[in-house]
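Side project, low priority. Logging it here so it doesn't get lost.
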Amino acid sequence: MSQTCLFTGATVQRGGYVARELLSQAHKVNASVRDPSLLPLLRSSKQQARPSSKATSRTILLRWKTQHSDAQAFSYTSHSPFKTPGAELQHAQNVITACQRAGVTKLVYSSVARAGEHESFPAWNPESVLAGYWLSKHRCQEAVKAARGSFRSWTIIQPGWLMSNLLPPTSRFYFPELASQGLDPLDVGRFAATALTDTVGLFDGRVIPPAGQELSMGEIAGVVGRVSERSVDVQYLDAEEVEEQKSKNPVVASQIWENEIGCQIDLMKVRSYGVQMNTLESFSIREREALVMTFEP
């Protein structure tokens, strides 16, 4: 059954894939965007999103109150905890408040794997370079949970390492990133769409960390090299370089976290939700044009 969905963050990397998946399943999407120049990505679908680049998420939702009696909402914030501390939580609270006032019945919020577990990490340090990131994700999730009585159903999706990190512009910062459990961002869309249309309560009140497959760095390099027809080697920073960069470079710090702690997602449990997951091979073939651009100077 087609659903009417409000979507925030529709033109950012992860959000764009989710919006495309919702549209491909013939759902109606009202998208809140900050960069209208990226809308052709959504309009390439057979269905179309109705964008609003100027109105805030709060304004769009309040308008829904008289337009839709059984609306659903998917929210993803692209605010960086590193650049604007507190902005991510404020955005989440704005969306939640707007959903409550508009009478939205179902909320799906996209977070990140292991959010809320930071205090269990070995050598957790609230003053570390990644502390703000983890605390921000945790506070956003807690805000969603605190408002659960306002919705008929709520779900938090916690994606881990996204395969789109291998594509520009993200690849300019960390290519290839150290990670073992990859996820096609289109699969985040499948989980979101399935949660939004769930009628049996399988996703209700759940925090779900999805992942597609387990791969070593050598296997990732092999797939990327084979599909792009480029030579891709695996290289590692030496101990001195790691020590020098870990306290000031969030990318290196996140790679250390991935190596020592990681997402630890139960792939068998992920499959129990019945959502079809892509492989890195299928993702790379589909995104080959962008993947090849990663190697351009």
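Brief comment: The chain has a mean pLDDT of 81.
Revisit when time allows.
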